[in-house]
Amino acid sequence: MHLIGELDSPPISVGLPIYDLGTGMWAVQGILAALCEREHTGLGRLVECSLLETVIGFSSWSSAQWLADHEEPTRQGSRHRQNAPYQRMQTKDGYLMVGAAGEAVWARCAKALGHPEWCEDPRFATNRQRMANRNALETVMNALLTTKTTNDWVEVLEAAGVPCGPVYDYAQTFAHPQCATAGSCNTRATRNWARCCTSAPLRIGEGVRVRAVAPKLGQDNAEIFGRLGVMEAEIKEPRAEGVL
Predict the structure, then answer these.
(1) Last residue of a domain, which of 109, 136, 167?
(2) What residues make up the domain containing 19?
(3) Is 163 within a domain?
(4) Could you report the per-residue pLDDT of 68-101, keeping only the tens digit for each?
(5) What are phi and psi of 207, to 5 degrees?
């Protein structure tokens, strides 16, 4: 949270439980590594991971910067800490991420936006100068980008070979053709309702996929109690009392 938000804002949550999810991912990697080692040595391993260490591990060069020279990183909003322009920009109808890191990409970006002279401007000629004059750079770029829609600029910048992408809301995300092609959302219908879930962002052949979603509350009671030898008549009373 110390790093998230605009320069003059208080610390802000990332908006998702990223460190809970990340710690689980580290755990899986450790388990897989231990299983691989067991195949060779026959010995087991104790796999340990923590939320705190995930936070530190994900902080990458921010932690490295502090450890190297004790320079405290500051909040930068969507801005990249080492390159400009590499951040969110405003358009006529929304927002756009532009990643013009490096002089060659910056030259293509400036030309695509109709201002090749920006590359000769002493404020913007090099990345060091652009970082030092970031506010001025943002002002001139936003003044231009707000004249057209996000999709208009994506088309222009992609054609010029400039990394960019629209900032989507969830409706736009799940309507995107790539989500449909990749099967990012699974829907399973039952008699009178449907359940949806997101798919794991991992593919291991066609035979491994989500075949069902979490059941509705009490949906599988009869099947489970039946496996335990409890007859349907025996669960009528606890069902009537709201126990089941």
Answers:
(1) 167
(2) 1-77
(3) yes
(4) 999 888 899 999 988 999 999 999 999 999 999 9
(5) -80, -10
Whole-angstrom Cα distance, residue 175 to residue 181? 11
Which CATH number do you get for residue 91? 3.30.1540.10
Contact 75, 13 (CB under 8 A): no
Q: Look up residue 100 and give its DSSP letter.
A: -
Q: If DSSP codes are grouped into helix, strand and coil, which group holds residue 53? A: helix
pLDDT tens digits, one per residue of 111-168:
999 999 999 999 999 999 999 999 999 999 999 999 999 999 999 999 999 999 999 9
Rounded to an integer, what distance in angstroms lies between the CA atom of residue 159 and that of residue 164? 11
Q: How far apart are the first and last CA of the chain?
A: 42
Q: What is the per-residue pLDDT for 121?
A: 96
In terms of C-beta distances under 8 Å and separation of at least 24 residues, what long-range contacts does 217-222 make, across chains too? 218/244, 219/190
Number of H helices, E strands in the chain: 11, 5
Length of the chain: 244
Whole-structure pTM value: 0.72
Task: Tell me how far apart the alpha carbons of residues 33 and 137 are, in angstroms, rounded to a whole number.
Answer: 47
Token pair of 240, please?
């009537």
- Hey, which residues does 86 pair with through a beta bridge? 99
| Residue 85 neighbours by CB distance under 10 Å | 25
